[in-house]
Amino acid sequence: MSPIDKLSSLKWGMSKKEFRILFSDKEWFPDHPAQNACGFKDLVDHKNVSIVAYFVIDGYADGLARICVSFDDIETDNQRKFIFENQLSELKKKYGQPLYTKLLDKNGLPEHQMSELDVWINENSVISAVLTLSEDGSLQPNINISFGDKINDPISKEWLWIENKVTGRNLHIEKTLDIVFSSTRTMPARFSTSGDRRQSFCVSFSPLKHDADEEMAAQAYGAINFYLSNEKRGYELDQKTFHSVLMIGEDLMLGSFILTKFKEENSFGNIKQAIINHRLDNLEKTVPNLKAVLIEKEVENYFQHCVDFGRDTAQK
161 and 184: one domain? Predict the structure, then answer.
């Protein structure tokens, strides 16, 4: 397996220690004094490359978010073009045609421009290949191939507009609904467990860390007892109806959290009713009065609290 293939298969969020162990036989640079990064030298197609991994704070530890491969010591533009075309060919074999390609704009300042940029986006990553040439005015001609985490890498997140534009769909909304609807819990998250999580929404979404999972599960349960108290409503909900409203509130909180992590929190109004309807369709036969309860003002206030808390938790 080539170094680039190995790098592209790594799991985002791995620790710096885990990354170092995987490449323990390499010649490592000193850690960057200002950036949360580490790197080493290697060979790709018999050419010297520098490989730098960037980490972001993920919970209480560093999590891998971006990897850059830079081809060093290439002497001429013709060599750079040849190597770039070979690497571009390999990337196309693996990821298909780029979603976005940009060639040099002759009207701009050449020293600030790339000769060619190609971008791919898959389920988890943004992949880019960049060529800069002396003949186009670059003071630091180079070839750079990068892989970034769609969720946690700030640079990669800037490219996600391409995905929506090309497909004509908001893939973040679709992904959010898929994750919310994939929950395996049959009881409220307050009473559901997943691995070492004693309260859990029971979904697979890497940015939903242990603390956030349990905190939101506890908040949804604690808040419903405030918003839907007997004093506010005038009568007590039966247990089935209470748990049904609670689980819808949890789904809204989870959806708000996920969409905020995708930097799409302003789009939540487009999926709120879809989340409510999904749970309603599954519960209405066993909880016949549920639809009537959902239009009560106290329930609306509770749902809005869940949406706000999910968003705020994601932004911490």
Answer: no
Q: Indicate the average pLDDT of the chain.
A: 88
- Report pLDDT digits (tens) over 216-270: 999 999 999 889 877 666 667 888 899 999 999 999 999 999 999 988 888 898 8
Separation of alpha carbons 7 and 289, rounded Å: 54
Residues 15 and 145 grouped into a single domain = yes
3-state secondary structure of 184: coil
Q: Which of 140, 166, 192 is the last residue of a domain?
A: 166
Q: Which of 69-73, 91-95, 100-104 has the lowest mean pLDDT?
A: 100-104
Q: What is the dihedral of CA 158, 160, 164, 167, to 10 degrees?
A: 130
Tell me whether residue 31 is exposed, middle or buried, using C-beta atoms within 10 angstroms of its C-beta: 0 to 12, 13 to 18, 19 or more: exposed
Side-chain-facing half-sphere of 3: CA atoms under 13 Å: 23
Helix (H, G, I), strand (E, B) or coil at 163: helix
Print the domain residue range for 229.
170-314
Do 13 and 159 lie in a common domain?
Answer: yes
For 171-202, b/e burial (b = at least 16 CB within 10 A) is: bbbebbbebbeebebeebbbebebeebebbbb
Among 128, 149, 166, residue at a domain's last position? 166
Q: What is the pLDDT of residues 58-79, one digit of tens each?
A: 655 689 999 999 998 899 999 9
- pLDDT of res. 58: 61
Distances (CA, A) of 34 to 30, 176, 268: 12, 34, 36
